[in-house]
Design goal:
heterodimer, A: about 290 residues, mainly alpha, Formate dehydrogenase/DMSO reductase fold, two-stranded antiparallel ribbon, 10 helices, globular, B: about 210 residues, alpha+beta, Alpha-Beta Plaits, two-stranded antiparallel sheet, 7 helices
């Protein structure tokens, strides 16, 4: 005896691309993750002690986060009402993102002016909370099948760490310094974990709307470009840099640039390429052939 | 009391009268339709059917659009109507991507159908709506005003949403879901009306009779 299988829902209105959040929203997510991630990894790399990279991160991190806010403001219909977004921290992840981003920027800037270990720790925690809030913003968008998945917050957190480490690998040589500790080695591990999280995201849900919306990320050139250019190539370059040491600093620099660009591209793909409204379905529309 | 609607799909002929009535009632600008009738096709040959699906805000009991709103502009009344306070909306679009029913519409700019506003467009212009989110409200001003005059929503035209009043096939029924004697409650029970996409967990107040 075969088990009863309910009829498949009838799709009456097809999925359609969302056009509300465009490039400015992607910029907010990409710059926010980059700035907060940079501060976080610089703080952890320095073990919360004062270090040149952390000094750079203390002004560059908040600047990137605020630049992301400025970008997304251009997309709002009534940007002058922007301060109102802070009033719903009890329920809205967008309010929480704004509050945490602002608190992070203020704390990091204060720490830049008056260095203190406590402020460093607080700024690092706020940076982590900020990128988590960005992930939850996307997670709570129930109308978009490719966003409404529980893996989204971890995806945003590891993305911030990867892009932050990438920026660290770029900034330190650019300022004529060598990163403290085994930054390439740590980055190798984080990139590997991030790739696993990305691959997990691509197969996270069996829901047809999710599978269809994320198909381009799995099977077509944009997704392949991300995996190849944003994860595999920098991983290989970092392995070379770690093996050869100082003589391969250019490889580490290139890996850092690829990581930063790759994570921005990942946000673009998630928000714009996979950002499709769910199709409208009716569960039990029975079809009967009508006599002619 | 919880306002709800039942839409009888076999009765719907796809005439879009409800779409036009809504546009006129709310003076919606060009390109914005709070409700529309989707013209779909279901099945595989030879068992194929053309299906008209009137779409609008589902006035969900668990609306995903309300908690995500960062300004508190999106709200739900005691009677279940989900509405937007235009003066508080920042136009971020978050509520629209949170809605599984494509029911929210951001008015980017209040453009008309022609180069210059027509007299009718000028007379009904709503500059307060520019740059903010808008949606179907079950004609709450109309329902409230009618009830204040002692009329019965869902029975008297002046206390009933315009789409239901205008429907030429009597396919749209409005009433109180909490009242077991109301026409909507009886239709849901007797005709086994269903909601769209219950898997989204939004508990819509708009039901559809499919057969």
């Amino acid at each position: 005896m075969t088990a009863y299988r309910p009829p498949a829902p009838v799709e009456l209105i097809p999925a359609m691309r969302q056009r509300l959040w465009r490039a400015p929203a992607v910029l907010n997510f990409a710059l926010g993750g980059l700035g907060a991630g940079f501060y976080l990894v610089a703080a952890v790399a320095a073990r919360l002690e004062m270090a040149p990279a952390l000094v750079t991160a203390a002004w560059l991190g908040p600047l990137l986060v605020l630049a992301g806010f400025a970008a997304v403001t251009t997309e709002a219909g009534r940007p002058l009402r922007g301060p109102r977004v802070l009033v719903r921290v009890a329920t809205s992840w967008m309010s929480r993102e704004a509050a945490l981003g602002g608190a992070f920027a203020a704390t990091a800037a204060l720490e830049f002016l008056a260095p203190a270990p406590g402020l460093r720790l607080l700024a690092a925690i706020l940076a982590l909370a900020f990128v988590t809030a960005q992930g939850f913003i996307v997670r709570r968008a129930r109308g978009i099948a490719a966003w409404d998945v529980s893996v989204m917050p971890p995806l945003f957190v590891v993305s911030a760490l990867v892009s932050g480490l990438g920026l660290l690998l770029v900034v330190e040589p650019a300022l004529g310094r060598a990163p403290r500790g085994d930054v390439p080695g740590v980055t190798l591990v984080v990139v590997a974990v991030a790739l696993l999280v990305w691959l997990a995201y691509l197969t996270w849900s069996p829901e047809p709307a999710f599978v269809r919306a994320t198909r381009a990320l799995r099977e077509r050139a944009p997704g392949a470009l991300l995996v190849g250019g944003g994860y595999v190539a920098p991983f290989a370059l970092l392995a070379v840099a770690r093996t050869l040491g100082d003589s391969a600093s250019l490889a580490a620099l290139a890996a850092g640039a690829l990581l930063v660009g790759g994570q921005a591209w990942a946000k673009w793909l998630v928000i714009l390429t996979a950002g499709e409204f769910r199709p409208i379905t009716l569960a039990s529309l029975r079809l009967h052939r009508r006599p002619s | 009391m919880r306002w709800g609607m039942v839409i009888d799909l076999p009765r719907c002929v796809g005439c879009q009268t409800c779409t036009i009535a809504c546009k006129q009632e709310h003076a919606l600008p060009a390109g914005v339709q709070w409700r529309f009738v989707a013209d779909g096709e279901a099945g595989v040959y030879p068992d194929v059917r053309r299906v008209f699906l009137p779409m609008q805000c589902m006035q969900c009991a668990e609306p995903p659009c309300v908690p995500v709103c960062p300004t508190g502009a999106s709200r739900r009344r005691e009677d279940g109507i989900v509405w937007i306070e235009s003066s508080a909306c920042v136009g971020c679009g978050y509520c629209a991507v949170a809605c599984p029913y494509h029911a929210r519409h951001l008015i980017h700019e209040t453009t008309g159908y022609f180069d210059a506003p027509t007299p009718a467009e000028a007379a009904t212009a709503r500059p307060d709506r520019a740059g903010v989110m808008t949606k179907c409200t079950f004609c709450m001003e109309r329902v409230d005003a009618g009830r204040a005059r002692g009329l019965v929503a869902g029975v008297d035209a002046d206390a009933t949403p315009m789409c239901a009043v205008a429907c030429i096939a009597n396919a749209i029924v409005f009433g109180d879901l909490d009242d077991p004697a109301s026409r909507v409650s009886r239709l849901i029970l007797e005709r086994r009306a269903q909601v769209l996409m219950p898997e989204c967990g939004t508990t819509p107040s708009v039901y559809y009779v499919a057969e």
